[in-house]
Design a protein that fits this description.
41% helix; eight-stranded mixed sheet; alpha/beta; 335 residues; globular
């Protein structure tokens, strides 16, 4: 029996733990006391496609396992990018020489500190292409489509067959850099949503917000073009078509982009939640990566730079500014 340990039981960690339990895997979770209390009654998993599962509470691993405790076969690191470095000292207590670490963070490069700290372990990147919300304590809802994509490695070739399900499709990729850039293109919506202070579906229904999102995408595509990175398709349309689609009038967008609007009407992005809870956002790992790569390659990225400034201001004030589409266009220099 494969054993898994999920390190961090937030939205993604809670959903992953529940989906693994649903597949009959041996699962333990490393979580803070308040999170443990919330999950003690079991987990409810649902998704946009109608899948549903109730699973018992996972076992909770101690922060410092006793000597001789069996290390997991897989350790899923599901903390945010901003918490990876702080997690490294604690991770060491949960690893054995054969433990495979799967880093499930947004953006690019957050797995670097883990690889540097544990050169003897296999460290793989994971990309969660779907959105997870928590409508009630212990209820994790996958509010959009997409798979969990894991960096291909000979040691994990049988993992998808063991853990994949309708609730959490799992696949492997040999082109993880390109996959992460493609996910980053979609994740550029996070900041726009955080600044708008409305649910994602409502936000996508307004052309002004979509124009800002599209402008951020165009800068990323210019950067990846300079890098020679061919982005894989993670949506129904090729990545290069998305900015044009987003820029269409509302009536046309709603006709041809139905799949983009197949999002739970209450879903907001993790960046909105971070700002509303007074936490540091992942803006430096998302839009910040576009800006940094643009500077290295002589590609201007003014819209993403404006977005970073606005998000950092919202971080300092601990709430979303609730910018209208017109105001956000002005603030980003697009109108």
């Amino acid at each position: 029996m494969i054993s898994h340990r999920v390190f961090g039981a937030g939205l993604i960690g809670g959903f992953v733990a529940g989906a693994l339990l649903k597949r009959g895997q041996t699962v333990s979770v490393v979580a803070r006391p308040q999170v443990r209390k919330k999950l003690e009654g079991g987990l409810l998993l649902t998704d946009l496609e109608g899948h549903q599962a109730r699973v018992p509470s996972p076992d909770f691993a101690p922060q410092a396992p006793a000597p001789g405790d069996r290390a997991p076969d897989y350790l899923w690191l599901t903390v945010k990018c901003t918490s990876v470095i702080d997690a490294v000292p604690d991770l060491e207590r949960h690893l054995g020489p054969g433990t495979v670490l799967i880093c499930c963070q947004n953006g690019l490069g957050s797995e670097g500190p883990v690889k540097a700290a544990f050169p003897g372990n296999t460290v793989l990147r994971g990309m969660v292409a779907f959105n997870v919300a928590e409508p009630a304590p212990g209820h994790f809802h996958r509010g959009s489509g997409g798979s969990l994509i894991i960096e291909a490695d000979p040691g994990v070739s049988e993992l998808p067959a063991a853990v994949s399900s309708g609730l959490m499709p799992v696949e492997l990729s040999t082109e993880m850099d390109a996959v992460l850039w493609a996910k980053l293109q979609l994740n550029l919506v996070n900041a726009v949503n955080a600044l708008s202070d409305v649910p994602v579906r409502e936000m996508l229904g307004q052309r002004g917000y979509r124009r800002v999102f599209a402008a951020c995408m165009r800068e990323l595509l210019a950067v990846t073009g300079a890098l020679g990175v061919a982005l894989p398709r993670l949506t129904a349309l090729p990545p290069t078509w998305l900015p044009r689609l987003l820029s269409q009038p509302d009536w046309l967008f709603t006709q041809i982009a139905k799949s983009m609007l197949e999002v739970d009407p209450t879903v907001r992005t993790s960046m909105w939640w971070d700002i509303s809870q007074g936490k540091a956002t992942e803006i430096d790992y998302l839009n910040g990566n576009v800006v940094a790569a643009g500077r290295r390659n002589g590609i201007p990225t003014p819209v993403n730079e404006h977005i970073i400034r606005l998000v950092k201001a919202a971080e300092s004030e601990h709430h979303s500014p609730g910018l209208s589409p017109e105001r956000l266009l002005q603030e980003t220099g697009l109108d």
